[in-house]
Amino acid sequence: MSKEAEIMKQTIKECEAPGITGEDKYCAISLESLVDYVIAKFGKNVEVFTNEAKEENVNQEYTILKGIKMMGDKQIVCHKERYAYAVFYCHRIMNTNVYMIPLVGADGSKAKALVVCHLDTSAWNPKHFAFQVLNVKPGGPPVCHFLNSDTIVWVPN
User: Fold this and answer.
1) Is the pLDDT assigned to residue 41 strictly greater than 80?
2) How many CB atoms lie within 10 A of CB 93?
3) What percent of the chain has pLDDT over 90?
4) pTM, full prediction
5) Which terminal CB of the chain, N or C, has fewer other CB atoms within 10 Å?
């Protein structure tokens, strides 16, 4: 099987798998289905956020600046999946906060990055990558992480 076929197979597996406890998930295969999902969950009065950078794909160190903003404690996060056409893995995980983090790069360029903090990880797989990296267990401290630049976050107004 080709590498591309393996990646597509993995995307299908992720989309068909049941969500974890407290997670509402949906794989959108078009922009229309993505918007329909968000409207069904939050109504039409929503804000959308993505990472903001002047230049994409600049590999440099960043420093976190003052002015971190909590964007909400209810959100739908849509991750772009690797597939032959646009597929977004959208989900809501209860007890999760989303933040916009102001950054400055080593070259002086400014950016804003989205971070989510999962406050309750008790239902997560104990073998989850985050637990290995942070050396913590499910149900322990919050797990926070930056979102990729191809991720979209929807927050109700």
Assistant:
1) yes
2) 22
3) 70
4) 0.87
5) N
Closest alpha carbon to 119 in 62, 66, 68, 75: 75
- Token digits for 5? 């076929």
Q: How many residues does the chain have?
A: 157
Residue-wise pLDDT tens digits, 68-95? 999 999 999 999 998 878 899 999 988 9
Helix (H) or strand (E) holding 91: strand 88-93
Q: Are strands 23-28 and 88-93 parallel, antiparallel or unpaired?
A: antiparallel
Provide the pLDDT for residue 10: 85
How far CA 145 is from CA of 43, 53, 66, in Å, comes to 27, 18, 18
Alpha helices in 20-125 (DSSP H): 31-42
Torsion of CA 123, 36, 98, 119, to 10 degrees: -10
**Distances from the Cα of 154 to the Cαs of 45, 60, 84, 108, 117, in angstroms?**
10, 28, 24, 29, 15
